[in-house]
Each structure stands twice: as structure tokens, then as C-alpha cells.
Predict the structure.
Amino acid sequence: MNPIAGMGGRVGLKGTDGPDVLARARALGAEPVSGLRAVRALAELRGVAVLAAPGAMGADACAAAGIPCETLAGVSADAQGTRDAARAMAEAGVALILFAGGDGTARDVAGTVGTEVPLLGIPTGVKMQSAVFATSPAAAGRLAARVMAGEARFREAEIMDLDEEALRAGRVSPRLHGVALVPEERALMQAGKAGAVVTDEAALDALARRIAGEMERGRLHVLGCGTTMRRVKRAIGFEGTLMGVDVALDGRLLAADVSEAQLLRLTETAPATLVLGVTGGQGFLLGRGNQQISAAVLRRIGRQNLVVVAGAMKLAALDPACLHVDTGDAAMDAELAGYIAVRTAPDRSAMIKIAA
């Protein structure tokens, strides 16, 4: 387990790669999230033999979940320790390496064991572009249990990662780092991130202008991240943040690249509408790169004030044909579940199920 994975999400830092960014995240009030999410996954496992990295790298989460484990010795609490633990687990002949982290942790593990041992990621990072993660911590636990029961098949999946410095500067720079062997289960595993679909562009541009024209005065509009949402921001009249969450009011930018704390303060002052795009290939609305839109923020805004925007071709390419939410709050995920109209053009929408 990477104990610091995901700490930059709610404070809007796009990740926690590097000591300087981690220090800034802590200064902004970021708290660890990886341990709690790992415990949710481990709670689904019973009656299996577990070999864990020591302390905060794994054994502590096992203890919190009530899972007996054998603990590796001599493993440091850093990226090299992750690689050392992965190698030791492979040499011990484990059936599955279950790791909690983001794309950087996936790189460290897969870079060490390749396709020698199956991997499964508990999603605890910020971006998670790779196709090695389950759709939620609970899904990771259930799928790990299937692997241990001999009920899973496997496939190769891509390990992707983004340059965080470029991301903070508004440039999306993904890179393929290798492949890993993962369980094959469409309903429980997220796909790799896919790019924009060119044939959707004209309809989305027209829809962005329609949304801008529909904005109610005196009402906040919380605008999510990604290229589709950038169209909406430009249609309103400002450039906005490509991979951040921005807030508009009365046709102008009120706050850019906001954190959870800022969203909670702003939504105390006026009613709000939340406008989100869909992650291409993965189908995520929440929990991948926009953790600042937390369960607390969502309760303040209300599901009835959620607007989803996506290209028709992007929706058609989703497999399975549903949307995902992973807010870290099971009750909120359940509240968001159900069918929602996804706007695909000025006068067109598609009814898509949100799966919790």
C-alpha cells in the first residue's frame, strides 16, 4: 500500500508525486485516504493467506480489517520499498498482488514483476489512467476473493501515467509504461483512459453554447475537469482549468482550480449546479481526478442538480454501458446510483445507468 496515494485529490493538486507536492498537500490540510480504502477492500477477503508489507505499507490495513497476515521484513516505506515488496511477494509464489495506490504505484509494482504475477489495484490515487484498477475498493476486494477461489480469468492490461508537472500546467501528457496481468472482469475492473472522439466535437461545441446560455443568474455552476468540460468553460467565456474544477457565477469565472474546502465554502453562499463530463473509456463521473467534489460537496449540491455531458460516440464505446462513481462514501455512491439523462447535443440526451 502507498500510504500517501490520493492525498492531493481533495486539495486540488492532481497527485502527490514528489516530496515538495506532498508537503504542500499536507500544508493545505490533506489527510491520508489510502488506508481506509484498502481496509474496505480487505474486508471482502476471508479465509485466505495474506503476505503483507510492514506497517503503513500493508500490515496495518490488514489488522484494521481483521485479516491475519504474515509480514515481510526489511521493506522501506518508499517507492523502493514497494518494488522490494513486490519482488519478495513474487518470489514467495503469491497468487495475486493486491496493491493500493495510483498509477505511480502501479508502475512500481508492474515494473518489478511484469506479467509474472497477476496484479489488482485498489483505487486510492488521484488520476488512475491505467487498466489495472477495480472500479472501487469493495469491487477490488470481491474480485480478489474470486481470484483466490480460482474463479477468475486473466488478461494483459496497459500501465499508463500522466506527467503531474505538465498536468498542473494544463498539459495532458500520458505515457505507456508497460503491461500487467490482471483479472478479466468487465463489471468490476475499470478500462484504461481513452482520448476524445473526434466525431462528437461539433455536437459538443453546440451543447456547450446551449449550457452557457441556460445558466441561471445567482446560481453557482461547479464545472468538472477534462476536455468536454473545457468546451463548456470556453463557451461561458473563460479558459478555465483543464484538469481542475472551476466555479462560474453569472457568466464569469468565480474561482479556478478549487479544493474541497473552497467548494464547501462557496456552496454555503448560493445554490449550485454541478456539471460533469465522462472519463473516456472508463465511464467515471466521480472519483478519478476530481476528488475535490467530495461526498460532503455532493450532499450540499444534491443529485437533482447534477448535469452530465458526454459525446454520443464516447457513450457508445463504454463497455459495460454504464457510468461509475467512487466517492469513498458508500451511502453517497448508492444515492447517486440509478439512471440519469446524459446530454450529448443541444436537443439530445441518452439515459445511462450510474452503477455504485
About this structure: The first helix runs from residue 19 to 27.
